[in-house]
Write the structure tokens for this entry.
Amino acid sequence: MKLAAFDFDSTLMDGETLEFLAREIGIEQEVKEITDSAMRGEIDFFESLQKRVALLKGLNVEVVDRVCSNLPMMNGAFETVNELKKQGYRVICFSGGFKNATIPFAQKVGLDAEFSNILHSKDGVLTGLVGGGMLFNDSKGEMLKRIQSVTGITAENTIAVGDGANDLSMFKYAGKKVAFCAKPVLKKEADIIIDYKDLTFILDNI
């Protein structure tokens, strides 16, 4: 068996979930500045996530679900996932974002599993709090290591694909490290760099 682990935002999905949500209440630029800083590795991911989610307090869950079910797929995402599965890969995604987005997306493209966070809500509106298993800088790598341990898939048979600083932890456990339209901090550690917004380029490098 082989394993392909993808980041979600700006990798499988073309954009940042939190920014799409922030657009609904007119604070997209404020959220984007925090996101960009975190992806460059300038501030701690957990801290940045807390700040951004807090800004969404009061947003209606129905709006969240509507936005998250209509997020744009990255060019080549469907084709790449399907081809990897034909080649014997289990294909999963890790996201510092939210299940409102990753669950419907996983169903659309046929992912084998998704791992993400949960936006807390009460009485149908967001409370500004977030929980889950993808909260920290090292969360993706730690989960990847556990999956490898359970499945017996080795690092040599693992591909990790991401774009930002919080994807660095995946690279520790991957034989092939793909920086996809990535920040410099991730490119430094990658052995495959793709600067075109088309995931099918990955297929030429595995």
